[in-house]
Design a protein that fits this description.
Elements: E1 2-3, H1 4-9, E2 17-22, E3 31-36, E4 50-54, H2 58-72, H3 78-81, E5 84-88, H4 91-99, E6 105-109, H5 110-119, H6 121-126, E7 127-132, E8 139-143, H7 150-159, H8 165-172, E9 178-182, H9 188-200
Parallel strand pairs: 4-5, 4-6
Antiparallel strand pairs: 1-8, 2-8, 2-9, 3-6, 3-7
Helix pairs in contact: 2-9
Amino acid sequence: MLSVPQYYELQRPDFAKTVLISRRGRVKEEFLLLAKKGSVARLSDLEGSTVMTADGLDHDMSLAWLATVLADRRLPPPGRFFRSVTSAPKVPRAVLAVYFGQASSCIVTRSALETIIELNPQVGASLEPLATSPPLVSSVALLAHGSDYTLPRFLDALSNLHENARGQQGMRLFGIERMTIGAPTDLASSIDMVRALGRHGQAGR
């Protein structure tokens, strides 16, 4: 398992297949930069404040997208624009830190926020996005080349994990709904965004 920025740094390694993760029926995710309603008027007002992400494979892409947003608006990279850039062990903790005023903003995926709002509708009523990413693939699973006999069967097993209780239970631990076989074109827009960071500097600087 790799984040797309990690995958790009490896210069598209030669693997047999790329497997994509689906959450709430989406292979590509929108990232949201959330702040409390009425706390700031625009993204530039967050200068010198605190921003949180969540640990996991979405972390790298969230920071890469944030760096791209700041660069597009001619603002410094995250490490200089914000007073601190920290990560929470779980998405709900990052969201609740903004909700309770412990952080100025956070970056989460739309599907993760929707899950939190289902459990606590007040969160959705209190937070608003200051920026929204295009749909992006944030992480992939890469399968090594195998025999003509084993690889197709392994791919079939992965693609159908969601159809049995044991597979559903295992994927639920990682917030995964199902896994699908991907193609290079699925990663194109995400890799283009990561590549563009080379013109702006690294995400955390």
